[in-house]
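Field: sequence (string)
Field: structure_tokens (string)

Example rows 1 and 2, in order.
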Amino acid sequence: MDENEARGVRNSDILMPYYKLGKPLGYGTFGKVKLGRHVMTGKKVAIKILNTQMLDDVAIQRVQREIKILKSFSHPHIMRFYDVIERPSKIYIVMEYVNAGELFYYIVEKGRLDEDEARHFFQQIISAVEYCHLNMVAHRDLKPENILRDSENNIKIGDFGLSNVMKDGHLLKTSCGSPNYAAPEVISGDHYAGPDVDIWSCGVILYAFLCGRLPFDSDNISSLYGLIKRGLYTLPSHLSPAAKDLITRILVVDPMKRITTPEIRRHPWFQHNLPWNLAVPAQVMQRARRIDEDIIQKMIGLGFNQEKVIESLQNKQQNQMTVTYNLLLDGRPRESNGYLRAEFLEHMTMPGLHHYAGPSSLTGSNSYSNLFENHGASQPRQAPSQGSWVLGIQTEASPREALTEILRALQRLNVSWKKIGPYNMKCKWSPTISGYFSVPRLINIDLNHAPIEDDGSSDGGSSNQSRPTIKFEIQLYKVREGRYLLDVQRLQGVPMLFIEICYLFLMELRLA
């Protein structure tokens, strides 16, 4: 080996001390993906190499968002993130290697899938999507091109670059993703809930599995959008009645009437031949993260310190100890991870719980003679029954009646508000020394204007400036036909003061 070759090897070792780079796996706008090998374990990995000089601010944000999301994820059907190495001109993202390619090419090759194989993939996709939503992440670009298949015919969802972290009480606005898989509310430019648009995309994917083509397709983008907005598609005669029913319940234009993930889980077509590990609810899978003693022993054999490995895992640190642990863990067959089965069996044998049928409602909750019902966290837990879990205040009154009652309560508490949407307002409250009920009750309520205009400026007087202030947001949601949910979210101020105003607000609504 000459001097230049030797220098090249040394530079490569310095650049990637823990990984050996192999053949290219693919190319993109900003870089390429290469096959890699983890030196210590010999496990194959996929290494995404990005040229930072070609990345604009938007692309950098996408990369950072994807890394942040995947670092926190651990699910058998989501591509595992292992490591990131930053250099002056390049970023190396080390990911799980999935060796059978995109699901898209598999569908193109087969034409269409039989229902058993389509169900096999769809069950795994829903399990992964439910896990994302549990962790407050909406993928927003679900399509077969972003789903990889391994040699055992299992899938892994990847490409979280367009994903967004969801916040309680807030809807998303950005129009992104692939047009053919985009929900009507996304292409219409409306505010939308992340889980709703992911479920729509899952419905399009299921249709593609079973039919070998897309439900909405046109060379003209305006025509395509028209088909999606009107929900116009045809169902082939070869589909089973159960498959047709599930597709038609997912591809519903109105997101409020669209089937939810728990309802998909309960659907007979989905339940057929459901593997035990996919019957585990995402909440249980989230808890089932015990440290594997066999893997720890293997790492000790590789020269790692046991205490430091366990400390790194418990603190969720990113270093070669956690990378090696995860590579060894992922290299084992899933069935050998018995702790997850134990968690599942423990969940199945809980008193009053016979099978996972999605979130269920609280029974025996208080009812009230006025417009609202309190379903807050203070309610005692009961055995599950038909319905849905709720956290907040529900009403069967019309939105206008509900808002009128809400504004009357705010007015009695001397809360100022500013309307920011038809059923959404920002509020500000400062407790007075003399009491909270000094403002007289007004009979005529103007739903469009607050009694005190809050434009974000100073309150005006020194006494007001010296008083503690809490800012919060109120939103009225439609949870199903004829039923609405009131959500209150703290924006700014001392948490105890927020609890105080919430208690007073509930008193005014006759719920405390």
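Row 2 begins here:
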Amino acid sequence: MGSKLSRGRSLAVAQRQSSLMRLHERIHTLLYLWIRFWIFATSLEKHEELVWRLVQQLKHSVYRTATEKHALFHHLVMTLVELWLRTLHAVLVPDVFTRYVCATFVLHIVYGLQSFVHQVLGNTCLKLTAEGRRTLRLRHQLENAKTFRERQSIAGELDKLEGKDKWREDPVSGLFLYERVMNKTQVYKKLKLKNEVIGLMFSLRAGLLRKHWGLGNPRLYSVSKVGTKHVIEEYLDTIVQSMNVVLRAKGTDEDNDELSIDNKLAFFSETRHAYGRSALMLSGGGAHGFYHAGVIKALVENNLLPIVIAGSSAGSILAGAIGVRNDDEVLGFLSGESVNLSFLGPNITEQDRAAYIPSFLPPIQMLLPKGGFKLVRDAFVLLNRFLDKRFLLDTKTLRDCLRSVMGDYTFREAYDRTGRIINVTVTPLNADDYPQLLNYLTAPNVIIWSASLASCAIPNVFRPVELLAKDEKGNIVPYYREGLKWSDGSVECDLPMERLSELFNVNHFIVSQVNIHYKIVSGHSAFGNEQTGSLMSFLKKQMKAYIKNIAVFGLKTSVLKFLGIGLIPLITQKYEGDITICPTDKVPATTLLRTVLSNPLRETFPDILLAGERACWPAVARIRTMCRVEFALERAVRYLRGEQAFEDERRSGRKAIGRVPSFYTSPSSMNLIELGSVAPWLAKLCLTTN
């Protein structure tokens, strides 16, 4: 009996062990298949082969002779190097990046040819009919319009001919939520008709967003050459009219407190803050920065110039010039009649000639024409000075020109005079530091022309410069006692969008882009076709992300230290905004390359100005739609601040002290006990900023 039980237990143990072994085999099989799957998925078969070869070599190394071991050592080293390179290849996948580069290059050529063929075939077909020939004639006139009014007149006629006017009249569209827009318009109209001011205030606070219901879709502004859908324009008209009703409302005995000046100022200030601000951003680009002047002129003439203006490198010249002038003065300045256009020049002094002219040059003076000898002499001076001091052009000519254009205004003085918030980007000479954005908040006492000079100091073209400021007595002194040097701001931060959003609540960026490398490195579509633009944008964004991540890895591991940190941001930074205007789009590339570091001639400046205007005119309708509510809120806030100051002066019998910062908003009626009181910190701020 005992032996049977013993045999039964042994059989049960054997069965359990057999089951465990089968389970282990299955687990091992699944684990092996899982590992093989990932080796296959990650293309690591070659790594597996190399590792197995290393194991075999190490396993049999004990049986080798000394000579064989010596050869084996070298073989092991080469195998390890190969393994390391293949691992690096698997992680960094340079072949994928190379395919992206090749695909982008090929697509640029193919799509360029496709666009050219499409244009030629389209024009050929249009020439076959009288209506088509009229369309071509109007398109030619549209491209060569001299004024915005002329352009709009031609565009309206062309829209009628092409049937785009019917598209504008039809509210139905898949590009935006037209039903909600129409319903909201009716809500505002009913409240306005009943004169329900409090209801209007509630609806406005709840429904004002810049790109609400798809109104920011760029395709809404690319169909018609005059404007967008009438239903959108009616919606914006109704919003502005509703805000005017609130602004003019006096209130009754029941709601007098809710419609007081302080309460309305709180309403409009907080609504403006929630809606956000627009900023005009002027890129760098050497002498091509003069094309910004046409964009600015077009915006000023249409009352669409934002309060916040940022400029980098050449863009800082125009930003500073308009920052110290009101609208009337800006138009006079941009006429070009009194503008000093001699910003760039070699500025070769007698000391330079004495130090850098080679000894063999004067004896051959008689062999060369007078003008030819001067060119050769100056070329040798510039070359030798560059080799000695590492700059091509001297800053004196640029400094004198900037000072004559901007005067000795500081950022705070310019803001107090014009209300414009001017921003200039500068880059510290120390490669480990970050670019800085100078404005009336971050650097109120810095002189604008000094900041612009630093922002224009292109590496190896101009020498780095110091920032200058005004002290308490108005004397011009160095801003940093440490003697810090600054250079071109567009190299690492052409468009300082994040910093502007932090400081001034900017969420809508209008970019005037004139950088010569913009179309090459930008992810923005250079083609009209949506699929084409999306594919090209995808490839370029993938390449920029790859370069940026590789740079972070390389710089941290000292692999790419020799490149510094300036080259990578130049390639990977963002060069486009919500609305991007490219004034140099139709200028030949050869012309751009030839004139990038040369002053514009007095006789060619009107053509440069007109090119900038023509580039901006197609975007005017979109800018007006995106900014109309914002500008109406800004006007309401400024009007109510004036009314509040007048009321305070009438009550107290003395004039209000100090200026009101741009970031000031009245205390909200929801958390203020006594509306007539002024916070102590605000009174102190007004006194200290006087």
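free_text_note (row 2): Residues 2-41 form the longest helix (40 residues).
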